Every structure is written in C-alpha cells, then in structure tokens.
Amino acid sequence: MSGPVVEMPERAEAASPIRRFAADVRGATSIEYALIAGFVFLAMIGSLRLYASKVGQVYATIGNAVSQN
C-alpha cells in the first residue's frame, strides 16, 4: 500500500497563509468606513435624482418671480 500523496506537514504549511489571512484584522476599520461612505454617497445620488426635478421647479419659480420684479 502506498503512502499519502501529500504529507500532513506540507498540507499544514499550505493552509497556514490562508489561516493567517483569515485571522488578519488590520485595516478592517478603514474598510468599514469606506463602505459606509460609499453607501452614504449612493443615498445622496439617489435622493438627488429623486428630487432634482422638484428642486429645478422651485428655482424656476424663484427665477420667474425675481425677473418680474
């Protein structure tokens, strides 16, 4: 009967960088802040698109009132 193709110590060494990467939490806070900023930006763009025509109408009304006086 032949032995295992990959010995245990080699397999453990191959998994070690993966485990280290999964356990590494450096920079997690900055990534979280970047995600929050991205979501806030998307919400701002969405609300801008939603209210753009209404705001344009308000400015047009103000412009017409100013030009008449």
Write structural notes for this entry.
The chain has helices at 8-23, 28-68. By secondary structure, the protein is an all-alpha fold. The protein has one domain. It is rod-shaped.
How does the SSE layout of this entry go?
Elements: H1 8-23, H2 28-68
Helix count from the secondary structure assignment: 2
Give the overall form. Answer: rod-shaped
**How many strand elements?**
0
- Give the N-to-C terminal Cα separation: 101 Å
How many domains, in number, for the residues? 1
Question: Which percent bin holds the helix content?
Answer: over 70%
From the alpha-carbon coordinates, what is the Rg to the nearest angstrom? 29 Å
Structural class call reads mainly alpha
Tell me the strand percentage band.
Answer: under 5%
Mean pLDDT: 83
H/E element string? HH
Major beta sheet summary: none
Poorly predicted regions are none
Give a summary of the structure in a few sentences.
By secondary structure, this protein is mostly helical. Helix content is 83%, strand content 0%. The longest helix has 41 residues, at 28-68.
Features:
69 residues; mainly alpha; rod-shaped
